[in-house]
Amino acid sequence: MGKLFPPFKVDIAGALCVPSALRDARSRYQGGQISQQTLRAVENAEIRSLIERLRSEGVRIVTDGGFRSYDFLEAWEGIRRKGDAGAPSGKELEVTGRIGLLHHPILDDFAFLAANASDDVLPKQHIPSPGKVLMRILRETDAGCMKSVYPDLNILLDDLAAAYKKLLEGLYEAGCRYIQFEGVKSMLTDEAARLNNRVLRERPEGLFVAFHAATDMLIRLRGADAYFLDYDCGICDRSRLLWFVHEREAVFGFVLSYYPDEEELDELQAKMEEVLNYIPVKHLTLCLPDADNLLNPSEEDEEKQWKTVGLAKDMADRIFPV
């Protein structure tokens, strides 16, 4: 793992399409037909296949594809999913005490990913950003329940920062050198932005952190090594984005919002070359579309995804010098 380090010409910005075997296993698990251990075994098998497929396609980044099925917050101390009975509408979480972090299953997930990755690829771990977790807790927890444990929001921010610091240190000790934080899609609060920046400052030295979010979120960040932006979506403010790129000494990954066809490569190349007027080519990364944008990825979507991997490599050959 020490031989490779970001940035890479082609990167993975989010989840990949869930294979049909895993979709079927999840459905049978939810229906009570198989055990959690059996579901986990299917996840492991599909992640191994994904690692080998990415490697065979020449991608130097490997991830678990977002194939794990648990909730990121389920392993946190002091917070749990609330029962349906009597729960206010939309309030799905319950704060039972000061929030902290025990041994999070994502540490075991990374250990599995790293153990199955060969030396010519780099395992990358995706995690919800601190600000995203904060906003989810505030949105999905009853205000009265929250106030009884956290009368001062700053105490909650301190606890979340400490939990993330512990998690990142655990991942680093396990050999992880590349993390990606997933941001929110709604408006970011000042507290969430401050929490993001604090966690970035306190991360282990030598841990490369990419941040994937909308431009409005990213312009409030300080200290990320890479910023992944949804460059070709219709709501992107292109002039503001290019100003943002110009103001940052960092890597920029531009994420496609759909699976392109060969006929669109010239248009995509023109967009990338526009960006290269503002940053050196060594600071640019091409990112695959995020399958989380698809409500229920089909086998056809999966085929398009792998076709896009090939197109991304073709685009990289056009843009990047040999």
TrEMBL record:
Query: Would you say which domain of life the source belongs to?
Result: Bacteria
Instruction: Enumerate the SUPFAM superfamilies for this protein.
Output: UROD/MetE-like (SSF51726)
Q: Which organism is it from?
A: Bacteroides clarus YIT 12056
Q: What is this protein called?
A: Cobalamin-independent synthase protein
